[in-house]
Amino acid sequence: AQLVESGGGMVQTGGSLRLSCEASGFTFRRFNMSWVRQAPGKGSEWISSISTTGDTTYYADSVKGRFTISLNNAKNIMYLQMNNLRSEDTAVYYCNADGSRSYWGQGAQVTVSS
Fold it and tell me: How far apart (Å, rounded) are the C-alpha atoms in residues 114 and 25?
Protein backbone atom coordinates (compact mmCIF):
# COMPACT_ATOMS: atom_id res chain seq x y z
CA ALA A 1 0.00 0.00 0.00
CA GLN A 2 1.32 3.42 -0.89
CA LEU A 3 0.59 6.98 -1.96
CA VAL A 4 2.23 8.34 -5.10
CA GLU A 5 2.30 12.06 -5.80
CA SER A 6 2.70 13.87 -9.08
CA GLY A 7 2.25 17.34 -10.52
CA GLY A 8 4.90 19.41 -8.79
CA GLY A 9 7.13 21.81 -10.66
CA MET A 10 8.23 25.40 -11.06
CA VAL A 11 5.88 28.29 -11.82
CA GLN A 12 6.00 32.05 -11.68
CA THR A 13 4.19 34.09 -9.06
CA GLY A 14 0.49 34.09 -9.81
CA GLY A 15 0.61 30.80 -11.68
CA SER A 16 -1.18 27.53 -11.00
CA LEU A 17 -0.31 23.90 -10.41
CA ARG A 18 -2.33 20.81 -9.60
CA LEU A 19 -0.93 18.08 -7.39
CA SER A 20 -2.26 14.52 -7.52
CA CYS A 21 -1.99 11.83 -4.89
CA GLU A 22 -2.94 8.33 -5.98
CA ALA A 23 -3.45 5.49 -3.55
CA SER A 24 -2.72 1.88 -4.30
CA GLY A 25 -3.43 -1.05 -2.03
CA PHE A 26 -6.10 0.70 0.00
CA THR A 27 -9.17 2.86 -0.49
CA PHE A 28 -9.52 6.50 0.52
CA ARG A 29 -13.00 5.99 1.94
CA ARG A 30 -11.66 4.71 5.25
CA PHE A 31 -9.07 7.45 5.70
CA ASN A 32 -8.91 11.13 6.52
CA MET A 33 -6.97 12.74 3.69
CA SER A 34 -4.74 15.80 4.00
CA TRP A 35 -2.00 17.84 2.40
CA VAL A 36 1.00 19.03 4.40
CA ARG A 37 3.96 21.07 3.19
CA GLN A 38 7.45 21.79 4.37
CA ALA A 39 9.26 24.91 3.23
CA PRO A 40 13.05 25.12 3.23
CA GLY A 41 14.37 25.55 6.76
CA LYS A 42 10.89 25.38 8.31
CA GLY A 43 8.73 22.82 10.02
CA SER A 44 5.77 21.04 8.53
CA GLU A 45 2.62 23.03 7.90
CA TRP A 46 -0.81 21.47 7.55
CA ILE A 47 -2.62 23.16 4.68
CA SER A 48 -5.77 21.24 3.86
CA SER A 49 -7.96 18.23 4.70
CA ILE A 50 -11.03 16.63 3.21
CA SER A 51 -13.67 14.35 4.68
CA THR A 52 -13.92 10.73 3.57
CA THR A 53 -16.96 11.56 1.46
CA GLY A 54 -15.36 14.64 -0.01
CA ASP A 55 -18.23 16.79 1.22
CA THR A 56 -16.32 18.80 3.79
CA THR A 57 -13.02 20.59 3.26
CA TYR A 58 -10.70 22.47 5.56
CA TYR A 59 -7.95 24.95 4.77
CA ALA A 60 -5.20 26.80 6.56
CA ASP A 61 -5.61 30.55 6.44
CA SER A 62 -2.43 30.81 4.39
CA VAL A 63 -4.02 29.01 1.41
CA LYS A 64 -7.76 29.63 1.86
CA GLY A 65 -9.31 31.03 -1.28
CA ARG A 66 -6.36 29.98 -3.45
CA PHE A 67 -6.09 26.21 -2.99
CA THR A 68 -8.80 23.59 -3.52
CA ILE A 69 -8.68 20.03 -2.26
CA SER A 70 -10.80 17.34 -3.89
CA LEU A 71 -11.24 13.59 -4.14
CA ASN A 72 -12.03 11.18 -6.91
CA ASN A 73 -13.00 8.15 -4.86
CA ALA A 74 -13.67 6.09 -7.96
CA LYS A 75 -10.05 6.49 -9.03
CA ASN A 76 -8.60 6.69 -5.51
CA ILE A 77 -6.93 10.02 -6.31
CA MET A 78 -6.79 13.19 -4.26
CA TYR A 79 -6.01 16.55 -5.82
CA LEU A 80 -4.74 19.91 -4.67
CA GLN A 81 -5.44 22.69 -7.13
CA MET A 82 -3.18 25.61 -6.34
CA ASN A 83 -3.95 29.00 -7.89
CA ASN A 84 -2.42 32.44 -7.50
CA LEU A 85 0.79 30.93 -6.19
CA ARG A 86 3.17 33.04 -4.13
CA SER A 87 6.85 32.69 -3.38
CA GLU A 88 5.98 31.63 0.17
CA ASP A 89 4.18 28.59 -1.25
CA THR A 90 7.55 27.16 -2.27
CA ALA A 91 7.84 23.86 -0.40
CA VAL A 92 7.74 20.11 -0.65
CA TYR A 93 4.11 19.02 -0.54
CA TYR A 94 3.09 15.71 1.00
CA CYS A 95 -0.23 13.92 0.93
CA ASN A 96 -1.32 11.93 3.93
CA ALA A 97 -3.93 9.24 4.54
CA ASP A 98 -4.70 8.79 8.21
CA GLY A 99 -6.85 5.94 9.46
CA SER A 100 -6.07 2.50 10.80
CA ARG A 101 -2.53 3.45 9.91
CA SER A 102 -0.92 6.48 8.33
CA TYR A 103 0.43 6.67 4.80
CA TRP A 104 2.55 9.44 3.31
CA GLY A 105 3.35 10.31 -0.28
CA GLN A 106 6.93 10.71 -1.41
CA GLY A 107 6.63 14.48 -1.67
CA ALA A 108 6.31 16.85 -4.62
CA GLN A 109 8.50 19.92 -4.98
CA VAL A 110 6.68 23.14 -5.76
CA THR A 111 8.82 26.16 -6.55
CA VAL A 112 7.31 29.58 -7.13
CA SER A 113 9.62 32.17 -8.63
CA SER A 114 9.09 35.90 -8.92
Answer: 40
